[in-house]
């Protein structure tokens, strides 16, 4: 059985998806809900869904941004985009991230059912990580391999947790992180890249930008204060990094999200 997360800001759509699809027949036994990308991101580590149904247009963090972060935290998770319109740029971004498929609103239950069924089949046919409870039952050579894989993923989790706890610190760097974890810098970077598909610095930047977005929306602090609170060395670097990551300046983002 598998776990699925619905990330959708429209309450009726979210409730309808949960109610009308034959989840048990699709081998889905746990369904989690989030009303936007930011809320979903906070749930990922505890829920660890196998499949994510994700709307594209959402407040605070859109589907593309969320999928990028989700792919970093759960590289094996399958992601299906939901949208009310077809947009070539979003589709290009979806392909780049590795989204499994794309379905348009209004959603046809039969179409989505077939899509989830296909995705579940892909997961079952892939080579999953060896469950922790089976490690002791394996022959010695397989046991060692499983322990090595488990240790690697534990290290990646440590990197993610360290970044999420310390991203406000301007001095955080890959060198400082490798020293903290007592592993070589080159090995750490290669391991993280192979496991998540992204670099350590990319993940650090994504967390800082996500935190900055929330501050830009939810308070009236000046840009230099937000830069300071999210680990950027100065407001100019913050503005350049923000525009490179999102395509717009922090000021433009704030104006677009004013209520």
Architecture overview:
There is one protein chain. The chain is an alpha/beta fold. The protein has three domains: 2-125, Rossmann fold (3-Layer(aba) Sandwich); 132-201, no CATH class; 212-256, Arc Repressor Mutant, subunit A, CATH 1.10.10.60. Helices cover 58% and strands 11% of the residues. The chain has twelve helices and five strands. It has helices at residues 11-20, 37-47, 63-73, 88-97, 109-125, 140-166, 174-181, 185-196, 200-218, 223-229, 235-246, 250-256; strands at residues 2-7, 28-34, 51-55, 78-83, 101-104. It has a five-stranded parallel β-sheet with strand order 2-1-3-4-5, sandwiched between helices. Helix 6 (140-166) packs parallel to helix 9 (200-218) and helix 9 crosses helix 12 (250-256). The longest helix has 27 residues, at 140-166.
How helical, in percent, are the residues? Answer: 55-70%
Assign the CATH superfamily of the largest domain: Response regulator
- What topology, given as strand order, has the largest sheet? 2-1-3-4-5
**CATH C-level of the largest domain:** Alpha Beta
Low-confidence stretches: 127-138
Our measurement of the CA-to-CA distance between the termini, rounded to an integer number of angstroms, reads: 42 Å
């Amino acid at each position: 059985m598998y776990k699925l997360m619905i990330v959708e800001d429209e309450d009726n759509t979210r409730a309808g998806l949960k109610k009308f699809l034959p989840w048990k027949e699709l081998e889905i036994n746990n369904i989690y809900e989030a009303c936007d990308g930011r809320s979903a991101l906070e749930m990922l580590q505890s829920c660890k869904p196998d499949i994510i149904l994700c709307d594209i247009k959402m407040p605070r963090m859109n589907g593309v941004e969320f999928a990028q972060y989700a792919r970093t935290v759960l590289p094996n998770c399958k992601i299906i985009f939901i949208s009310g319109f077809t947009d070539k740029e979003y589709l290009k971004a979806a392909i780049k991230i590795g989204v499994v498929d794309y379905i348009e609103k209004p959603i046809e239950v039969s179409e989505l059912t077939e899509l989830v069924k296909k995705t579940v089949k892909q997961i079952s046919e892939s080579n999953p990580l060896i469950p922790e409870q089976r490690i002791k039952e394996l022959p010695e050579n397989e046991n060692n391999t499983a322990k090595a894989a488990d240790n690697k993923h534990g290290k990646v989790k440590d990197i993610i947790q360290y970044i999420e706890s310390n991203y406000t610190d301007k001095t955080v760097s890959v060198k400082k992180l490798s020293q903290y974890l007592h592993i070589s810098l080159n090995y750490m970077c290669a391991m993280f890249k192979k496991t998540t598909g992204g670099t350590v610095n990319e993940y650090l930047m994504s967390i800082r930008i996500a935190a900055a977005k929330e501050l830009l929306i939810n308070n009236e602090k000046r840009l230099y204060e937000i830069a300071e609170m999210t680990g950027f060395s100065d407001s100019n670097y913050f503005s350049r990094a923000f525009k490179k990551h999102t395509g717009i300046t922090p000021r433009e983002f704030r104006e677009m999200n004013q209520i």
